Amino acid sequence: MSVPHQPAGDTAATAEVTAGAVLSPATGPVADVELPDTDETGADAALEPAVEGVAPRGTDLLVREGDVAGDYLERLLDILDVDGDIDLDVEGDRASVAIVGGELDDLVGSDGAVLEALQELTRLAVAQATGVRSRLMLDVGGYRAKRRADLTSMAADTAARVAGSGQPERLSPMNPFERKVVHDVIAGVAGVRSESEGEEPARRVVVLPER
Q1: Of the candidates 47, 66, 109, 209, which lies 20 to 30 Å from 133 by C-alpha distance?
Q2: DSSP characters for 145-179?
Q3: Which parts of the sequence belong to the R3H domain (predicted)?
């Protein structure tokens, strides 16, 4: 597949609309359980055990989620005439899917906005096929990997400042994936701790000195 020359943003806008249209009719009922994204530590992570009726995700289910997501995204790329390969993996307790190669910036969007929308639509497609809500993680063009590296560096610098000054610092609003990266870094630094405050989409991490 080749990438057509379009003004910046055209593919991004088309991707969000097309991704919804590609969804297949549900093959069965989706369990009516609102599954937290569990992308954080502390109070946020404690939410998941409180959800009743959510069974642990076995490897077979995660592989199935990846296969469904891969098929869905392949159809999406075909419709958009975008060149890209799809890598499937299982990381911990979730399926991991990555679109790599080609010109993929429009599928990421400003600050990853299109990527987040595509991830949610892909999760919905998986839920329709499996009957189970999905926590699948989607990456496009290595965006999340680069963002993880940037956030890791920023979180380490923030932890050092807070440990030295004894004063808390509030970070910019982040999505659940980004907040988890920061929480994980802070958890490994002595003398500081982190928590989240606020509501989506303005929810943010606060780094504080250890009590």
Answers
A1: 109
A2: HHHHHHHHHHHHHHHHHHHHH---EEPPP--HHHH
A3: 145-211
Q: Which of 134, 171, 161, 100 is nearest to 30 (CA)?
A: 134
Q: What is the mean pLDDT of residues 161-187?
A: 97
Query: From CA 66, how far away is CA 63, in angstroms rounded?
Result: 5
Residue indicated by tokens 């199935």: 64
Q: Count H helices, E strands: the chain? A: 6, 6
Dihedral (C-alpha) 148, 154, 157, 161: value to the nearest 10 degrees?
A: -130
How large is the average pLDDT for residues 174-183? Answer: 95
Stronger pLDDT, 198 or 26, i.e. the higher one: 198
Rounded CA separation 148/152 (Å): 6
Cis? peptide before 201, omega within 30° of 0:
yes
The domains of the chain, with CATH numbers, are 10-36+52-141 (3.30.300.20), 144-209 (3.30.1370.50)
Q: What is the pLDDT of residues 109-129, one digit of tens each?
A: 998 999 999 999 999 999 999
**54-110 pLDDT, tens digit each:** 445 689 999 999 999 999 999 999 999 999 999 999 998 999 999 999 889 999 999
Q: What is the pLDDT of residue 8?
A: 39
Helix axes 10-22, 59-80, angle to 10 degrees: 130
pLDDT of residue 15: 60
